[in-house]
Amino acid sequence: MTTRTFRIMVRGVFDGLTDEQRAELLAAAPAHDVLHAAFTREGHLSYDLSARAAFTFRFLDEGEAEKDILEATERAEQSARDWLTERGYGCKNLRSQAEDLSQAPLGKRQRRAAATGR
Questions:
Q1: Averaged in consecutive runs of 10 residues, what is the pLDDT profile of the chain (118 residues)?
Q2: CB-based contacts of 51: which residues, under 8 Å, 6+ apart?
Q3: Cα gap 15→93, rounded to integer Å
Q4: Listed residue (85, 76, 81) closest to 93, CA to CA
Q5: End-to-end CA gap in the chain
Q6: What pLDDT is recorded for position 103?
Q7: Are 6 and 101 in contact (CB under 8 A)?
Q8: Nearest Cα to Cα of residue 32 among 8, 9, 55
C-alpha cells in the first residue's frame, strides 16, 4: 500500500486573551508570520493579531488509506487544542480543512511532465 500525505489546517480565533497573553503573542509574532507558514508534522502556527485575533495551525500527516485522513484531522485538532491549552490561550470557532495530496489535481508543469514521461 502506498503512503498518502495529508495537509491539515486548523483555524480558530483567540478568545478572552489577557493583556499579558496578548503581549506574549505580539512579541512572538515574527516567528508566526503567515509569510513563513509551512506544513509541518508538529504543526506551524501563524497569526497576525494586529489585523485580527484569528490563527491557523498547519499540520502534515500521513496514512495508508483514504479514511486515515479523518484520524489525521482529529490528531491535528487535538494538537492545536493542546498547544493553546498549555499556554492558557482561549479559543473559539475551531474548524479544520484537510487535503489528501494524492487526490490533489496536478499543476500544469506536473501534467506536462507526466505526459512526456519525465
A1: 90 96 95 93 94 95 92 97 96 95 67 52
A2: none
A3: 9
A4: 81
A5: 23
A6: 80
A7: yes
A8: 55
E strand or H helix that includes residue 95: strand 90-100
DSSP notation for 40-70 = BSS-EEEE-TTT-SEEEEEEEEEESSTTHHH
Q: What is the pLDDT of residue 111?
A: 46
> Rounded to an integer, what distance in angstroms lies between the CA atom of residue 51 and that of residue 78?
26
CA 7 – CA 67 distance, rounded (Å): 14
CA dist 90 and 54 (Å) reads 12
Q: Is the CA virtual torsion 48, 52, 53, 59 positive or negative?
A: negative
Per-residue cell: 3: 503512503
Contact present, 76 and 45 (Cβ < 8 Å): no
Q: What angle do CA 13, 18, 20 make, to 5 degrees?
A: 115
The pTM assigned to this predicted structure is 0.84
Q: Taking a C-beta distance cutoff of 8 angstroms, is the pair 76, 57 a contact? A: yes
User: What are the grid coordinates assigned to 36, written together?
Assistant: 513563513
Taking the C-alpha atoms of residue 74 and residue 96, their distance in angstroms, rounded to an integer, is: 9
